[in-house]
Amino acid sequence: MLKIEEIKKMLYYKAISLNPNYEDIIRKEPQHANAYYEKGISLFKLGKYQDALSSFDKAIKIDLNNSNALCGKGSTMEHMNLYKEAIEYYGSC
To answer: In the structure, how many helices (H) and strands (E) does the chain have?
Structure first.
């Protein structure tokens, strides 16, 4: 029987592999904000909130007006119980 951590690890790799090109795209086009955003979404769905924030931050750094990444960051912060910070990002998307 699989342990919860093993299942989470499998789900993590499955989510990232939904688009195995994330890392390829990022490696080839490091300024591709949407690749970082999509990777952030996959990480968020796995509950890897800190990693998701990192991806959203990279997308925002590349494109300050990326409303998807701003909303993704807000949603992630909400799930981390950082409500005050989340509101700031929700206001930008």
So the answer is: 6, 0
